Amino acid sequence: MEIIHLQHPHHLVREQLPPLSMALGYFDGMHLGHQKVIMTAKRIADELGVKSAVMTFDPHPSVVLGKKAAHVDMITPLEEKARLLKERGIDFLYVVRFDRDFSNLNPEEFVEQYIVNLNVKHVVAGFDFSYGKFGSGTMETMKEHAKDKCEYTVVEKLEDEGEKVSSTLIRKFLQEGRVENIQKLLGRCYTITGRVVHGEKRGREIGFPTANVGEVDGYIIPRTGVYAVELGINGQFYEGVCNIGYKPTFHDKKPEKPTIEVHIFDFKNMIYNEKVVVKWHKLIRKERKFSGIEALVSQINQDKREAAAYFASLKSDA
Ligand SMILES: Cc1cc2nc3c(=O)[nH]c(=O)nc-3n(C[C@H](O)[C@H](O)[C@H](O)COP(=O)(O)O)c2cc1C
Ligand SMILES: Nc1ncnc2c1ncn2[C@@H]1O[C@H](COP(=O)(O)OP(=O)(O)OP(=O)(O)O)[C@@H](O)[C@H]1O
To answer: Is the fold of 2-163 the same as that of 181-317?
Structure first.
């Protein structure tokens, strides 16, 4: 997959570009609704005998348009989004810099410059996609704006239990720690990529060595608590339990940031500095302050049993 970064105004020339079937959207999460849009674009590309493409934006429009943060954490930061698109056989990923100038394009200009002029023959988006200044272009106006230069397909709403499958819903579940509910919206577990960093080195003393996962910038961290997780190291996944939190048993003053610590069952290798993937399966309980090490250790043993029972149930379901 080729990744093409564009900044407004772009200077690409239509005649020099391959004809495309392109899916449009921000696509944070690459959830099942997004996958429906993207795979529709790919199917149409195959039918037309053209290349498949996805157009996304960076940073998130709310960073530029909103009054809020200068940065928004993601379900799938750009690198992860690109990895998932490559896995699905998409040929081109266009990443358009979302800045003030770009956001001020009116809908007709957006279609002319970023669809027609990029040699898009067929454009695919979801029922609620909007484009152009104030998001005033919709899939209803697309017909008019694309005129006879480009065909388009609108993908119907994908729902789960009567609710639209959306990034917003997944973000809410992450805030609540309900990672188990996310699996059916993403079609996979929520994952975070990071690196094993040095912790406070207390874990080994209490009989539960943990891999502290750092360098997770850009990802939304689920709420604090204890989870059944898998940790991926060099492509191999190991079952374990993870605490996301502030370790109140040992810290009277709340640290600035929570730590992410994974205890892998029956594992003794040194993995400092390794790149790892945390796969979030299920929330087991909230983090608590214990009266001492003994009470904490007894609870962690219980957590391990619960996580192991969960993983065993997955195998018996299969
Ligand atoms: C499964 C699991 C559950 C944990 N639950 C708690 C908890 O509820 N409260 C707490 O203060 N610390 C909890 N911890 C964190 C331990 O205090 C921590 O692993 C220990 O202090 C070692 O930290 P270190 O690796 O930074 O040295 C938990 C750790 C694990 C692995
Ligand atoms: N559940 C869905 N069914 C069909 N199409 C969808 C669905 N969710 C998103 N899309 C489409 O996928 C593209 C990307 O959508 P977008 O990035 O706005 O995601 P979203 O999940 O709807 O996010 P948000 O929760 O922020 O509204 C758009 O074309 C959008 O219309």
So the answer is: no
**Nearest ligand to the CA atom of 163:** 2
pLDDT band with cut points at 50, 70 and 90 for residue 318: confident
Boundaries of every domain in the chain: 2-163, 181-317
Contacts of residue 237, defined as CB under 8 A and 6 or more positions apart, other chains included, come to 230, 231, 277, 279
What CATH number has the domain spanning 181-317? Answer: 2.40.30.30
Q: State the closest ligand 1 atom to the C-alpha of 263, by its place in the atom list counted from 1.
A: 31
The answer to whether residue 68 scores a pLDDT higher than 70 is no
Instruction: Find out whether 133 and 41 touch, Cβ atoms under 8 Å.
Output: no
Residues 291, 231 contacting (CB under 8 angstroms): no
User: What is the reported pLDDT for 67?
Assistant: 64
The Cα 188–Cα 31 span in angstroms is 9
Pocket test for ligand 1, best of 196, 200, 226, 247 (most atoms within 8 A of CB): 247
- On whether the 2-163 domain is CATH 3.40.50.2300, my answer is no
Alpha carbon 166 to its chain's center: 12
How large is the average pLDDT for residues 280-292? 97
Contacts of 124 (CB under 8 A, 6+ apart): 21, 22, 23, 24, 37, 38, 40, 41, 44, 152, 153, 154, 155
Using a 6 Å cutoff on CB, does residue 286 contact ligand 2?
A: no
Residue 72 · residue 62 · CB < 8 Å: yes
Q: Quick one: pLDDT at residue 11?
A: 95
